[in-house]
Amino acid sequence: MRSQIMKSTRKTITKLKTTRNPKISPERQQLITERRKLEKGTPQYREMNKTVNKAIRKDTRIHSTNMIKECIAQNSNMKVLRKNRAKGRNKIYQLTDSEGNLVSTTESMLKIVEQSYTILYRKPTINQPSRPPVTNVGSEEVPEVDVDEIKKALS
Asked: Where is the segment annotated Disordered (predicted)?
């Protein structure tokens, strides 16, 4: 049964994967693998490194140009392109309020988020069983230090 689950999962995952145009061409990938075989610090390695870096910059520039051309062909704007290529945090452009209306202004989106969090935190918490306090076994107790003692030690 487990093997059937694994097979169906693999099929589903391969269907879900989207094919993206790689930034670096296969020829450049080959150059990178050749560079890895060379010993660092040698003149051959330095020359190969220069060649690889130039090729990667060229491929990246070509990839970016193609993305912009594709964006223009789809009649979309640069904001969509940046959103698709963005790394890290996603920016929220629209939210639906409690009535189902789309809201796109920053002030109204902030109000919606504030309302949702106030509703969330108004809900009563579930009583969880109390845990025993954490104590360090075998550790010393730290004595309290007065401000006068600190001043005396510094002067």
From this structure: 125-155
Tell me the helices (H) and strands (E) count for the chain, helix number first: 6, 2
Which stretches does DSSP call E strand in the chain? Answer: 95-96, 102-103
Q: In this predicted structure, what is the pLDDT of residue 87?
A: 62
Neighbours of 90 (CB within 10 A): 8
Q: How far apart are alpha carbons 104 and 91 in whole angstroms?
A: 12
57 DSSP assignment: H
Q: How many CB atoms lie within 10 A of CB 91?
A: 9
Q: Report helix, strand or coil for 87.
A: coil
For residue 127, the SS3 value is coil
pTM: 0.40
- Are the C-beta atoms of 104 and 93 separated by less than 8 Å? yes
- Measured CA to CA, the distance from residue 40 to residue 47 in angstroms comes to 11
